[in-house]
Write a structure and sequence with these properties.
The two termini are 31 Å apart. The protein contains four helices and six strands, in the order E-H-H-E-E-H-E-E-E-H. The chain is globular, with a radius of gyration of 17 Å. By secondary structure, it is an alpha+beta fold. It has one domain.
Amino acid sequence: MGYQTDFIGYLQLEPPLGALERSFINRISGSPFLQEPGGALRVADEDEEVLRELTRSAPRGWSNWTSCPQGCCLSYDGGDKANHMAPWLKFLMATFLVRGATAEGIDGFTCNHVLSGMVVGSRRDTRELYSITVRDNEVEVELLWPGNPKWSDYPRLAYQTEIDRFRSWVADRKARE
């Protein structure tokens, strides 16, 4: 059985992402909250083939990073099991975002972004707190509070209950659409 981690914060992108960059990052996000309405199947287009090729060496799990609509920041997508945020961030940077990225030379990718900011994760099983800080494309993960394995038997914290209530509301709403 896995564990859930909740995140708050964002990473600023300068310059902002272009339309194709936003689309690719959001398409590989693992969040059901970002799926297109109706759950219809997409026909694999040229972009899909490029994306599939670029993500062949992706970390395990799925990306829980999403771009804002303006393309000026990345943040947690709200999806379940966001347990690989740091490896996925490093992969996204090396593949799509920074100078020398794998996507460099592909139409629609500038690969010239500088990321700076912080997200803080809180593991639900132990309540461990850690930060993912990026300064000028340098990623650092720091333990802020070690947590305690005994706490996994404790009831959810108030904010966790509210997050779960919202997730349930979204799932119910999508099921009725």
